[in-house]
Design a protein that fits this description.
Helices cover 40% and strands 24% of the residues. It has two domains: 116 residues, Phosphorylase Kinase, domain 1, CATH 3.30.200; 124 residues, Transferase(Phosphotransferase), domain 1 (Orthogonal Bundle). It has nine helices and ten strands. The protein has 271 residues and is of the alpha+beta class. The protein has a six-stranded antiparallel sheet with strand order 1-5-6-4-3-2. The protein has a two-stranded antiparallel ribbon with strand order 7-10. A two-stranded antiparallel ribbon has the order 8-9.
């Protein structure tokens, strides 16, 4: 398992520079082997835990990535690694009033003899949209308009969420929380393709797991997105055209089973 650094720790960035070093020390001096494993691969891990820092209990997600190759090292040096991009995306989302978790500190260092980077972010409690589509249909239905508005606002800002799958959204409050949001800049004339791409991503993961959307659920999300983008209600034919393109793309993918099946974590251990 890829763990957060425990030696030769260097602070790459801190949301609150005044607290950064103290917070970095508190977050790394933990037995992360006892944390909840949300996701792990040969080169990365996502771990969750509840950590006491001073008089505050912080639910924290530790996203760690192995710096294993020369290209990885170059990206880390010029601050364009995947975690650098995630940090920048979270900063942009919060600055533009999108619901997203706060990030605390971004570190690099050594863990078990390996060079790693770790981004510590706020853990958000609640069901993912994927869980809601499977087991809480009223909650999934209630999120259609806020989700469509969120997609429309991203398009108005010329941004594409490049992995808008339901397991990357937590239903915490009245709007979907974008807990993992790789963003790309698009041109205004690319908004149509970007909309189809994001709706496709909303469909692929449930399809691969045998979960079906409620009737007209995706149509409604598309309609709210277009209404936000165009500042007027879209014609039914326009929504139908978008959904046809989405359906074609999903069918073209064939097997849509996720490589790493998502996990719903309901309890974070104290470490």
């Amino acid at each position: 398992m890829i763990l957060p650094p425990s030696s030769r720790i260097r602070l790459r960035a801190a949301a609150d520079p005044a607290r950064g070093k103290a917070l970095a020390a508190a977050l790394t001096a933990r037995n992360w082997r006892e944390a909840a494993v949300i996701k792990q691969t040969d080169t990365s891990s996502v771990l969750g835990a509840l950590i006491t820092v001073g008089d505050q209990a912080l639910p924290v997600i530790a996203k760690s990535r192995l710096v294993a190759s020369f290209p990885d090292a170059v990206k880390a040096f010029v601050r364009s690694s995947s975690l650098d991009r995630q940090r920048s995306a979270a900063t942009w989302l919060l600055a533009n009033d999108f619901p997203a978790p706060r990030w605390y500190v971004h570190l690099s260092g050594i863990a078990d003899g390996l060079h790693v980077q770790t981004l510590f972010v706020q853990a958000i409690r609640g069901n993912t949209l994927l869980t809601a589509l499977q087991a809480d249909i009223p909650a999934a239905q209630a999120i259609r308009e806020p989700l469509g508005v969120c997609i429309g606002r991203l398009l108005l800002a010329n941004r594409l969420h490049a992995d808008l799958k339901p397991s990357n959204m937590v239903l915490a409050g009245s709007r979907p929380m974008l807990v993992d949001a790789p963003l790309r800049t698009i041109r205004p004339f690319g908004r149509g393709r970007a909309l189809v791409r994001m709706l496709r991503d909303l469909s692929l993961e449930p399809s691969g797991l045998g979960i079906t959307h409620p009737d007209h659920w995706l149509d409604d999300v598309a309609a709210y997105a277009l209404r936000t983008l165009w500042d007027r209600p879209p014609a039914a034919a326009a929504v139908a055209a978008v959904i046809r393109r989405v359906t074609t793309l999903v069918a073209a993918r064939g097997n849509t089973s996720p490589i790493h099946p998502p996990r719903q974590i309901d309890h974070y251990p104290c470490i």
